[in-house]
């Protein structure tokens, strides 16, 4: 149907908007790279790219989970709180060693995801409200468990945060593997198809006999687990557990990355490569402004402009 | 209906609908008690079998003996004072009085923990009955907290205000009962010696100046330095920046501030911003962090970039134990203290005042400093 309209009414603007929505984020990344290579001293170095990648890795990991949730026409506001929860639980159980601590973190995160998913799938609460509860409560719980910042000296945790394989830090490897995995799940598995079908129309998916509630719960659990991975990695990098500030406003960064990457908030479509590029775009933008010592308020304004552009491009698609 | 020619589908759909409704109903009924019980159970189990790294050593609590107390900076001649006649109260003996203390933020950071502890310790030392309340960073709660303290019979009040404005209801209630108020660490926008007695705090501009002195000494007064700013729109940030820049301009024109970015007073942001900084400006000689946490983040960033201790001089403000340990280890050149131990000074002021003698309206605490010479022996004084 869309093709027919395009053929009969050759609207250039529509075509430009469609192009922008699919490729705009990559164009943005490329543009920022070129600009920085020209104007930023010491930008073209392996060390610099390593830093940007390491800083963006936790955002990408959280954004992957967020993309899945948004694909079901939901949203998860509790990811930052789950990161904080993961940080404080890591600190609490590190005495047993890294692996047992990580298992306990996984249990807590799965519990958080289960609570979100159950509220959305069974009780029928709107995702934004259901996850808002845990956004507030999760950080509260994290602070009850660990009231203030605690330094961590576990060598295994430290190497997770700063170690590398052939010069590529673990953080980047983990983010890359997770991104490929999530992209595979969305494109090539039944689960991925079901997820998108639910996002397109939940009543239709239900009528078609899809396991709607099971898929929803799994999606929210996966999102919480990914947030917990990001929380543990950020903690490992800092070598301190800081539940007061870790993951603050992370939900917004993740949603921004997903939306800028071309995934519509209306669900039914997930663009994983775009999500990764969206996170990279915001990271490069922030880095550019910081490296040139522009006032921090500019970063927020620049981010807002990028979001508005992305939403404008997305609007064109919705109107076809 | 059009999409479903088979009746069996219709049947299954209705079944789903019914079960959903039932679950909804049941969950709503159970939701509250279950959630509460669940949260309690989670908190209990999590803390009962937890085992953090520090369980064995257990040396985290600063000893009471290490409490350095405070000295007052000698007031400038001609500074305003306040007496009980001018304020309009009646003389009481502090030992028989009840003191109410209202803390602003939750005790989740070393500064607030040390502040509350200092008030409690001093009250215990003097044998004064103390009532405490914590507003958990909510201003409306702090207002009702103070009103509660008044209702519970506090004769004197020590307040660590969350905001400077909006205190009228409390001040009126206190004035009606003639209860003297001392505010600590932040000021209330009201008339001294009428609405409250004295204000005790650090001089943040002076802290910035002293940090600049340390930076000048560490770098030799030449080169490029960066500032990790605190949260935007915070008076601590602006005043610590102002003092630092003033002193650098006046004493070391060779030292240039080439980078000012906010680290939001957190370690994580301090680390991220420093990582960007050392890549774009590899020649940076010093970093002034406006609190310890950002300074420690900068240390983490330098370590991650393979720098050695002392390659980049770091000066921070606050005086927490971790930062002073950083001075001992050689990563931080100097720490300017922001003294949280208001207890002795607050009670001394109240004592003097209630005996009918005059007290200054603005009292500035003496902040100490840590550098390579005294960090090791004074580590116990850090909070």
From TrEMBL, chain A:
The keyword Transmembrane applies. Keywords: Cell membrane, Membrane, Transmembrane, Transmembrane helix. It is a multi-pass membrane protein. It is found in: Cell membrane. Its main location: membrane. One of its GO terms (cellular component) is plasma membrane. The chain crosses the membrane at residues 23-43, 49-70, 77-96, 167-186, 215-234, 296-314. GO terms for molecular function: transmembrane transporter activity. CDD domains: TM_PBP1_transp_AraH_like (cd06579). This is ATPase.
